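pls design
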C-alpha cells in the first residue's frame, strides 16, 4: 500500500520535487521532460469551466501606442522603432482571484495585459500592476492560486490557506507587502501603474541582446482606495472599476500611460547582486534607470463585451522579432500555461477571432479544429516543406541563442534573500503608510486558524524589518518568536 503522505502525480507515481521545475542548468530554460510540471499546469488550466481560471473579472479598451524615443539601439521590434509611429492595441485590466461576478474593489493584484497589433504580428505584454510576483517558479502556481480560490468544503475564501502558503513560501514576502500596502486596492484601473514583471530579451538589428523590464507609468497619477471605502463600493457598486473606465473613455477623458524600460547588458546577469530573472525581485533604478519608449492611450470602448473583452486571449509567448524570452522560471511556465488555457477555454482557433487576429494576416499550415470559422486555408497546400511555393521560415527571425550549462535537474534560484527588498519597501513608506500596511496585514491574518502559521509569517516580517514584524505581532496579540 502506498504511503498516503507521499505526493504523487495523477498516475500515482511519487513526486521527487514539487518546489522547483526541471531546467537545463540553474538558469534554464525549463525542460519539457518535466512531465510533473506540464501535468500540473495543464490540469490547472482546466479546473474552471468556462471562465478564466484566474483574471476572470475584467474590463477592456482599445487604443494606440506611439513611439516617443529612439530605442533602435536596443531592439529591432517594429512597434518600438520610428519616432511618432503608432500601433493599435487592446488592453484588458482584471482582478486575479475573484470570479466573473466578484467585486472590482477587493484587495488583489490587477492584471495588466496589452495586445499590440504590429506590422510583424501581435505582441502581448501580460503583466500586473505590481513589478514582482508571489512565487518565482511555475510549478508552484497551481498551489498558490488554489489558496486564493474557495475552500472545497465550505466554498468560502480561506485565510488560513492563504497565509499558510505564504508563510511556507518566504519568496512571497515582497509581493505580500505590496498587496497589503495602500497600492493593494487601486482607486481605478486608470490610476495604477502596469508592469511586464518578468525579464525579457531585446535584440537589435545587429543581433546584440539586452535584458529588459517594462514599466507602464500612469499619467493620471497613482490613487488608491481605503479599505472602508473599497468595502462600501464592493457592496454598492461591485463593477466600479469597469464603469469608471468605460465612462472616462466615453467622455473623452482618454487614460494614458508612459512606457519605460530598464535595460541590462547581457553580461551583467552573471554578476548582479541577485538573479535578475527572479520575478520576486526588482532591479534597482539607480543601477538601471528608466528609459522612455513611448506613450499608450486608450480612446475607444468595446462594441461588444463578450466578443472583445471575454474572448481576448493573451500570452507572454505571443512575441515579435526583436523581443525574446529570458530564463525566468515563472515566465518559462507561463509560455505554456497561458496559450494552453486559451486553447481549452476559447478553442484551438482562438487566435483567428477578430479581437485576437493579427492585422498583417496569418500564413501557416494549421488546419481544422473546433469552431473553425474562416476559409480553413482553402485549397492551399497544407504541409511543409512542399514544392508548391507555400510559406517558408525566415532564418533572419530565428531567436538568438544564449548559453546554458549544468545538469538536467530540478533546482531553485541560488539567491535566497527574500527579505532585503521587502524591508526596503517597508522603510520607504511614510509613517502613516506603515501603519495602514500593518493594520491591513493584521486584519487579514486574524481569521487564520493556526497560531503556528501566524508566528511563522511574523518571523518573515521581522526578518524584513524588526519594526514590521514586531508591530504585526503586537496587533495579533502575539510575541515575535525567540529564534529571530
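designed seq:
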Amino acid at each position: 500500500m502506498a504511503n498516503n503522505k507521499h505526493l504523487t502525480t495523477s498516475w500515482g507515481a511519487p513526486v521527487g520535487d514539487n518546489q522547483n521545475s526541471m531546467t537545463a542548468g540553474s538558469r534554464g530554460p525549463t525542460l519539457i521532460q518535466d512531465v510533473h510540471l506540464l501535468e500540473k499546469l495543464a490540469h490547472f488550466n482546466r479546473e474552471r469551466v468556462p471562465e478564466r481560471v484566474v483574471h476572470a473579472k475584467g474590463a477592456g479598451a482599445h487604443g494606440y501606442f506611439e513611439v516617443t524615443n529612439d530605442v533602435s539601439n536596443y531592439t529591432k521590434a517594429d512597434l518600438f522603432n520610428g519616432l511618432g509611429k503608432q500601433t493599435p492595441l487592446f488592453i484588458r485590466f482584471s482582478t486575479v482571484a475573484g470570479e466573473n461576478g466578484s467585486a472590482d474593489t477587493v484587495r488583489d493584484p490587477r492584471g495588466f495585459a496589452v495586445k499590440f497589433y504590429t506590422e510583424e504580428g501581435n505582441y502581448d505584454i501580460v503583466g500586473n500592476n505590481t513589478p514582482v510576483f508571489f512565487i518565482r517558479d511555475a510549478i508552484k502556481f497551481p498551489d498558490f492560486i488554489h489558496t486564493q480560490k474557495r475552500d472545497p468544503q465550505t466554498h468560502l475564501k480561506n485565510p488560513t490557506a492563504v497565509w499558510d502558503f505564504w508563510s511556507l513560501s518566504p519568496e512571497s514576502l515582497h509581493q505580500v507587502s505590496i498587496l497589503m500596502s495602500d497600492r493593494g486596492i487601486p482607486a481605478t484601473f486608470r490610476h495604477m501603474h502596469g508592469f511586464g514583471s518578468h525579464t525579457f530579451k531585446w535584440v537589435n538589428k545587429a543581433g546584440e541582446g539586452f535584458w529588459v523590464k517594462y514599466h507602464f507609468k500612469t499619467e493620471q497619477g497613482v490613487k488608491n482606495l481605503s479599505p472602508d471605502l473599497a468595502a462600501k463600493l464592493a457592496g454598492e457598486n461591485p463593477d466600479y472599476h469597469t464603469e469608471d473606465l468605460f465612462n472616462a473613455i466615453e467622455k473623452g477623458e482618454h487614460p494614458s500611460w508612459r512606457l519605460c524600460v530598464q535595460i541590462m547588458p547581457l553580461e551583467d546577469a552573471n554578476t548582479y547582486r541577485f538573479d535578475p530573472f527572479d520575478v520576486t525581485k526588482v532591479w534597482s533604478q539607480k543601477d538601471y534607470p528608466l528609459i522612455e519608449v513611448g506613450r499608450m492611450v486608450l480612446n475607444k470602448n468595446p462594441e461588444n463585451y463578450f466578443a472583445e473583452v471575454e474572448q481576448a486571449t493573451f500570452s507572454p509567448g505571443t512575441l515579435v522579432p526583436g523581443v525574446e524570452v529570458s530564463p525566468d522560471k515563472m515566465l518559462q511556465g507561463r509560455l505554456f500555461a497561458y496559450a494552453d488555457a486559451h486553447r481549452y477555454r476559447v478553442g484551438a482557433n482562438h487566435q483567428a477571432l477578430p479581437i485576437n487576429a493579427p492585422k498583417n494576416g496569418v500564413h501557416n499550415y494549421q488546419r481544422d479544429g473546433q469552431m473553425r470559422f474562416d476559409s480553413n486555408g482553402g485549397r492551399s497546400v497544407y504541409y511543409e516543406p512542399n514544392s508548391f511555393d507555400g510559406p517558408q521560415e525566415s532564418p533572419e527571425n530565428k531567436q538568438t541563442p544564449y548559453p546554458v550549462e549544468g545538469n538536467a535537474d530540478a533546482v531553485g534560484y541560488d539567491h535566497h534573500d527574500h527579505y532585503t527588498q521587502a524591508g526596503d519597501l517597508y522603510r520607504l513608506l511614510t509613517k502613516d503608510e506603515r501603519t495602514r500596511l500593518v493594520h491591513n496585514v493584521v486584519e487579514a491574518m486574524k481569521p487564520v486558524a493556526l497560531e503556528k502559521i501566524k508566528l511563522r509569517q511574523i518571523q518573515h516580517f521581522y526578518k524584513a524589518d524588526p519594526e514590521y514584524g514586531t508591530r504585526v505581532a503586537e496587533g495579533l496579540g502575539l510575541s515575535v518568536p525567540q529564534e529571530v
